[in-house]
Design a protein that fits this description.
Chain A is an alpha/beta fold and 358 residues long. Chain A is built from 13 helices and 11 strands.
């Protein structure tokens, strides 16, 4: 087992990463929690693929459990779904010792965390992320989230799980597009924090994408480790953690302009990272060639790197940039790359980010 | 100004207590938060009595603000009301810098805290409690709460305000019954933690009830201080904080058996405290005469001390005791008094608490 410790004082928790470990979670829960009762929040497609393995381990460990199904993906992230979970948990006799287990992608983990943080003022939470993106992103940071008709993730809390359990083997059933989108987040943390890991990715991205066991486990563990370092320094998202938004300013705009349904979050972030790296070079924050290395790595992973409609749709992108983020000076926080492995938050106006003609 | 510091590491906050200070909150907000935007969550009857004073201070301090009205009392503590507040706050352009101000009794403070803790992963929260109970109880502890059809306070979070602002003068409009119910909670913290304060109450309860300025301010400050000490030692309600449930085991049962609408929480707690003190004497945990002192003080305040229907309704009380609280050993945590000023958590079965014939 490779273990990443997320160090947050009394809210610290381990991320355990081991291929083929899904069936062993039951024993781990007994060892770590002295619990005898768990509720697994998951979706039908995820349950169909992974519940049997989890179930066998829970049964073996003598843990009473029941699955609660929620819709798959973003559709689950509503107050209505959360309220339904409250009902079912309360009717099922939930106590403050009931362990909530989130089994699924980022959306499922977000909902499980929201409910865990808001029922009985906090239930112990174990996250079992089943997509590459969720393994490296949702598993560290303690952000729970629901969507509101007016925007994504507007409702949510900070709430740390007690344990994150990652079995990279579950990714075998993940469509290649989802793997690539997850890899974008791995490239992101390498870009802002760890030049050596970026170099390792340049050499091993193909192996990760091909789900070679050692390479995949290393990539997941190092990405979690980087995020854990950053979050450990800034749990409440007051400063340093903003660096994790590298690629997100334009990435978010790509999602808004194209519609969340048509572009994966990781794909949008890849586009946003290339944009940010080029802007960093243009503003002489990063040395020439920085963006080219990023483009080459992302292209090797099979991710698009050019926002085709950026000039044609400039007004729409400008609107998407401006929403909600503007400070008193009319500028927004933008994560610039200083070099591969190092980033910095700068303040730029929307017009500096997206000038009339580039 | 008398200030009680609630010491919770980076989540520490002050409770400021000063008669006649409601109109000064605006200046305090500017001094403490560099904020220019606040939203006041309150109810119509509270707004009618107190909003003008608050408003004048906010205007003088140059803070842009708007009131958001919610139903008065427990009716506000629903997910539906919280969702309505999300809608209005998001439509109003809420940011992570928007200050939420809860102005009202315990229910309003509970809802304001829930929304503050779950919108944008946490908004800065200032509580302005306007009932005696809320001033001494809801203002310390960081518990937010909504009700669920199946039980009170089942939905909620731990979330600390940034400031609690107490103007005891607002209690002048409080009906005597509400004052008495609030005093029950003050007697409670004295009983479990501070024999000197209990003695002071024996001498000054009349002055507090009569809203004599110095006596009232001292009682509120000391009660907040005791609760702050206990919560500071046990923020997450894992041990010591259970002592604050003194009187609540039977008190809760009184509320369930008689219906929450017919009995004030403080009245039920007064009944429960007397019951607990007598049981403590019977089990030789507390010296003889302990319960008599408690009865005398509560009676002086005008609070009932005898649960009239206890034997006649014993099955209903037993059911109410058992719900949700039972541990693996069939016992429940019960706060016993060891003497005036000192309490202890013991484990008793429902039958030990309510034997067939007393």
């Amino acid at each position: 087992v490779s273990t990443v410790q997320v160090l947050l004082g009394e809210r610290s928790y381990p991320i355990r990463i081991r291929p083929g470990s899904l069936a062993d979670l039951g024993e781990a829960l007994v060892a770590e929690f002295e619990t005898s009762h768990a509720v697994v929040i998951t979706s039908k497609p995820v349950a169909a693929r992974h519940f049997a393995a989890l179930e066998s381990g829970l049964l073996r460990a003598g843990i009473a459990f029941e699955p609660l199904l929620i819709p798959d993906g973003e559709r689950a992230k509503t107050l209505r779904v959360a309220a339904g979970l409250y009902d079912r948990l309360i009717e099922g006799g939930v106590t403050r010792q009931t362990l909530l287990v989130g089994l699924g992608g980022g959306a499922t983990c977000d909902v499980a965390a929201f409910v865990a943080s808001t029922l009985l003022r906090g239930l112990p939470l174990v996250q079992v992320p089943t997509t590459l993106l969720a393994q490296v992103d949702a598993s560290v940071g303690g952000k729970s989230a629901l969507n509101h008709p007016r925007g994504k993730n507007l409702i949510g809390t900070f709430y740390q799980p007690r344990l994150v359990w990652i079995d990279p083997d579950v990714l075998a059933t993940l469509p290649p597009r989802e793997r690539r989108a997850g890899l974008a987040e791995i490239v992101k943390v390498a870009s802002i924090w760890d030049a050596d890991f970026f170099k390792w990715l340049e050499e091993n991205a193909g192996a990760v994408l091909g789900l070679e066991r050692d390479a995949l486990a290393h990539a997941v563990a190092r990405a979690c480790g980087i995020k854990a370092e950053i979050v450990g320094l800034d749990e409440r998202d007051a400063g340093l953690r903003a660096l994790l938004n590298f690629g997100h300013t334009l990435g978010h705009a790509v999602e808004v302009v194209n519609g969340y349904r048509h572009v994966r979050h990781g794909e949008a972030v890849a586009l946003g990272m290339v944009f940010a790296a080029r802007l960093s070079e243009r503003r002489e924050l990063a040395p020439a060639g920085t963006a080219a290395r990023l483009v080459a790595l992302l292209a090797r992973v099979g991710l698009a790197t050019e926002i085709a409609d950026l000039q044609a749709q400039r007004p729409a992108y400008l609107r998407a940039l401006a929403v909600d983020k503007k400070g008193a000076d009319g500028a927004i926080g933008f994560v610039a790359l200083r070099e591969i492995g190092r980033a910095e938050l700068v303040r730029l106006t929307a017009d500096e980010i997206l000038p009339g003609a580039v």
